[in-house]
Specification:
With 119 residues, the protein is mainly alpha-helical. It is 90% helix and 0% strand. The radius of gyration is 18 Å and the shape is globular.
Length: 119
């Protein structure tokens, strides 16, 4: 692997660390991710269910990281309130909300039948 590839990975991991440290919502998502993974092992979900769960987790985390990037970029460009800045921030936050809602639905689809089978 070339040096610039290693440096790229370093920057990516720094980005993850920065987002984790500065974004409370990312830490909340992480708690739910841990809970979903524990539930997956507990209920012995199928490989397909694991794949769906992993993709859902990835979508939520990616949405949160992009939202954080958009907010930081706008804050860098302007400190004043601007209607376009508001639109960009609100739409990015809406993407996270949408991904989170879909992840809840996926969690219900995967885990509710498992819970009902235990009753």
């Amino acid at each position: 692997m070339r040096r610039h590839h290693v440096i790229s990975f370093k920057y990516a991991f720094e980005g993850l660390k920065t987002a984790f440290v500065t974004q409370p919502n990312l830490r909340i998502h992480l708690l739910f991710i841990i809970a979903a993974i524990i539930a997956g092992f507990f209920f012995q979900i199928s490989p397909v269910e694991w794949a769906i769960l992993a993709l859902t987790i990835a979508v939520v985390i990616v949405a949160e990281l992009i939202n954080t990037s958009i907010e930081a970029t706008i804050d860098l460009v302007t400190s004043e309130r601007h209607p376009l800045a508001k639109i960009a921030k609100d739409v990015a936050a809406a993407a996270v909300l949408f991904a989170s809602i879909i992840s809840i639905i996926v969690g219900l689809v995967v885990f509710v039948p498992k819970l009902m089978g235990r009753l």
